[in-house]
Amino acid sequence: MPKRLTAIIQREGDGYVALCPELDIASQGETIELARDNLQEALELFLESASPEEIAERLQREVVVTRVEVADDWVPSTMK
């Protein structure tokens, strides 16, 4: 059964960067879909080639992705 991991994708310049925080592996792509696909490939390659000890050492079992609210004083008026 496949293991579900987290992918955090954000725009960077003209493309997107995708990060898997559980294993601290990142990739990139010109679109969100390409960044996600490239991250999936990077994860699969890592899991195929890494030793069980390295995987266990890097694996963060509890990752929480949530939003927090902060005052908007710092937000440029163009973003409000």
Automatic annotation (TrEMBL):
* Xref: InterPro entries: TA_system_antitoxin (IPR051404), TTHA1013/TTHA0281-like (IPR035069)
Coiled-coil spans in chain? none
Q: Which domain of life is it from?
A: Bacteria
Please report the name of this protein according to its UniProt entry.
Answer: Type II toxin-antitoxin system HicB family antitoxin
